[in-house]
Design goal:
The complex is a heterodimer.
Chain A: H1 16-21, E1 43-48, E2 55-58, E3 69-70, E4 73-74, H2 75-92, E5 96-98, H3 117-120, E6 127-135, E7 141-149, E8 154-163, H4 168-184, E9 192-200, E10 207-214, E11 221-222, E12 230-235, E13 241-246, E14 253-258, E15 264-266, E16 273-279, E17 285-292, E18 295-302, E19 309-310, E20 318-323, E21 329-334, E22 341-346, E23 353-354, E24 361-367, E25 373-379, E26 383-389, E27 396-397, E28 404-409, E29 415-421, E30 428-434, E31 441-442, E32 448-457
Parallel strand pairs in A: 2-5, 2-6
Antiparallel strand pairs in A: 3-4, 6-7, 7-8, 9-10, 9-32, 10-11, 12-13, 13-14, 14-15, 16-17, 17-18, 18-19, 20-21, 21-22, 22-23, 24-25, 25-26, 26-27, 28-29, 29-30, 30-31
Helix pairs in contact in A: 2-4
Chain B: H1 4-31, H2 52-55, H3 68-72, H4 119-133, H5 140-165, H6 175-189, E1 207-214, E2 220-230, H7 240-253, H8 264-268, E3 270-276
Antiparallel strand pairs in B: 1-2, 1-3
Classes of the chains: A mainly beta, B mainly alpha.
Chain lengths: ~450, ~280
Amino acid sequence: MKTWRLLASITLALLPGAATAQTASPQGPGPAVGAGPAPGQRLTVDITGGISNKMPIAIPVMPTPNALQTPAGSTDTLGNQVSEIITNDLKNSGLFAPLSKDQLKPVSFPQVSAPDYGAWLPTGAQALVQGFVQANGDGTLTVGCYLYDVFAKSEMARQGFVVKPAEWRRGAHKCADTIYSRLTGEGPYFDSQVVYVSETGPKKNRTKRLAIMDQDGASHRFITNGQSLVLTPRFAPNRQTVVFMSFENDQPRVYVYDVGSGRKRLVVDQPYTTFAPRFSPDGRSILFSMIVNGNCDVYRVSASGGTPVRLTTSPGIDTGGSYSPDGSKIVFESDRSGTQQLYVMNADGSGQRRISFGGGRYATPVWSPRGDLIAYTHLGGGFSVGVMGTDGSGAKDLTNGWQDEGPTWAPNGRVLMFFRTAKGSGKADLWSVDLTGVNERPIPTPLDGSDPAWGPLLP
Amino acid sequence: MIARSDQKGFGFAVVAHLLLFAALTIGIAKRVPPVQPPQEAMDVQLVDAVGLRSAAPNPATEAPQEMQAPDQAPPKEAPPPAPSATPSQPKPVPEKPQPTPPSPTPALKPKPQPTQKALTDILKDVRSTAKNEQAGSDARSKADRAASERVGSLLKGVIGASAGKGETARAAITGAAMNGLAAALKRQVQPCYELGGLSGTPAMQIVTTLRLRYNKDGSVAGNPQLVEQTGIGPANRAYAQQIEEVARRAVLRCAPVHLPAELYEGGWDDLNFRFTPGQMQ
């Protein structure tokens, strides 16, 4: 990862049409030459109610200037694979409708920066993604990435990514992120990873292992061997560390695991049950829950260890703390009112107040990386995943499965991942859903999966 | 019995009341504020069902009055389109508009400056004429009616003339025809107003107005210009460019438009499109 080099070799060029269009039209009937008629005179046509369609987008195979063999394969094969990854990323977002392969036309290397707009118009594609894959003399690969507006006949973005051959997929994800962000106004999220609990075996004797994979399910690997039960893994902001709970020696404790070295250590070396860990946004501290004398409260401890600081004191069960992205507030769940509900407090534990007042119970709150929303599990008739404002307003369930729980935010705060347990079999799978409540879809994992935690965007 | 002095007083009172009434009547007649023209003469109603042709006025019934328009608002010849600039790069308008043959793509033709009077001006003129003619009358509504009748017939005349001669006639198209145009444009452009990933986001609160010029063949001339965006706040600022672009894409994708050529000048040659992503409240 350290050797990852990301060169924005070519600056992002914005749509020239948009740039010139920023010159607001003359509004007055003044003497400006070229001014139109007085404002009241021009007919105004009201177009009300936009159509909610996926945007048709063309992503043809990326050519290569020279077909060369690399450790990742031939560059012309890679061009094909890169365009496929971009296609899948955009399609999986639920916001785009990539053209099918038979609608796509071959693109020559010179055409990459000089698109044949006329040829794409009849396909109905509104945007066109072109690019190339090139083997560099130093052993790296360059993925060139261009976005065009087919109808405005203009370039919207261009960027180049230099990657090691082993990380060629990231070049494709970075390109997809560029396209996605430019067209939606959202932050990027495709070049990111997910840590989760991989499950297998009979219902009463499940083997649970931690696993890390790319957000699209690729590059999957296990990081624990399954000898002890593991739960609730969470990435540190630097992605080098994962904090989780393990039943090692039948004692439920919170551990920190170093992804690079494979070493793990106990976070709090005390004879109490600790669970529900989560890093602070700056990575310096860890929130967790600890049961002391039968009372469960939220604590904070330095990520490097030390004495825990108790943040809640109510006699009920206080757990599941999650920081706001600026680190100033914490949302957590508590049954102090009689049922599980969500509460917000200042980072030092002061100013605790309840924010969930809908019917049923609320659990596993997670603050959005954008800061504007809190995702939760809603326990009503069944379990569903939903979001509410940070003051509890506008609560809205996004899913309606038999048992949907444990939401985690994509780095851009637009997509949620969660796990769904099937009725009867108890088989769990990872799913994702768009913040608007659409595009619910399963995330491919080799075995069953639960407790996902989406990591931050890779640099 | 009424006393003599009372009778005098009564008579005086009656006279005084009559005088007061007369004075007030005249005063009101003189001081009545002029009949206000409609605030926005071209205010658009969403009347999808209105057909363009049928929205055009019927043949004039008061032919002689047609000539009043040129009298009151002599149309001047519009300067020919400037040597057309490239569509994407607005070129400063030449100091002396060269008389060149009208280009099929007058991307950024300079508008005639001292152009024909705006419709509102015509309305004003007509109204003052009507007012003069009706001076002294206490029938305010009558004046109103007369004025609107005159405007109607006036416009009928102008549109008939311009359609016949193929001359430019900005301000010559009736409100009904304008409504018809707006409805037809809405019908033709709406299907291309696709929000993509912006649907359901706070971007839905942003209303975007673009100014757009069409060529006579219905194609878009040059780049649509952003006039204004309203409804932008901290929650949706990040989407402002994208919500503008979906509006821009809508007019570009749903072109060329198909509209009556006789309503081009002053009708659909130069328009504002106001895009509201959400449904009307």
